[in-house]
């Protein structure tokens, strides 16, 4: 009975480790494709800072057990980036390399540079 419980706990911790690694990879990928000036405009730390922090969080979540403090700190850093920094970057228009952000609304085909075109009415 005890070995089955430990096996279930180990499986749960493995799934949690994969989720934390995916969270760090998502944050790192998102930060890598954001423009540098968007970080300054949003009054957040610079792009290099977030790339280093999120990269360390990804490596630490892979190497260490989740019961230590380092992966927990990495998870907190990833959550701060995804909940605080990323929306601020999207707010100032910090698209990924000029292609626009995820989930950004596109105008219709009749939109001009200053708004919708109404056909000269």
What's the SSE blueprint?
Layout: H1 2-32, H2 36-41, H3 47-63, H4 69-91, E1 111-112, E2 115-116
Antiparallel strand pairs: 1-2
Helix pairs in contact: 1-3, 1-4, 3-4
Structure description:
The chain is mainly alpha-helical and 121 residues long. The protein has four helices and two strands, in the order ααααββ. A two-stranded antiparallel sheet has the order 1-2. Mean pLDDT is 82; it is low at 98-103.
- How far apart the termini lie comes to 78 Å
SSE topology string: HHHHEE
- Structural category is mainly alpha
Q: Rounded to an integer, what's the Rg over CA atoms?
A: 20 Å
Summed up:
With 121 residues, this protein is mainly α. It is built from four helices and two strands.
Task: Fill in the keyword field for this structure.
elongated, 2 strands, mainly alpha, two-stranded antiparallel sheet
């Amino acid at each position: 009975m005890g070995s089955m419980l430990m096996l279930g706990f180990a499986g749960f911790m493995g799934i949690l480790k994969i989720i934390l690694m995916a969270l760090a990879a998502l944050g790192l990928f998102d930060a890598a494709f954001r423009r540098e000036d968007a970080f300054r405009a949003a009054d957040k730390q610079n792009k290099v800072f977030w790339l280093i922090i999120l990269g360390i969080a990804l490596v630490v979540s892979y190497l260490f057990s989740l019961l230590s403090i380092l992966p927990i700190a990495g998870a907190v850093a990833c959550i701060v980036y995804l909940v605080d920094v990323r929306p601020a970057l999207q707010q100032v228009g910090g698209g990924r390399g000029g292609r626009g952000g995820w989930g950004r609304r596109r105008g219709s085909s009749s939109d001009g540079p200053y708004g919708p075109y109404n056909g000269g009415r």
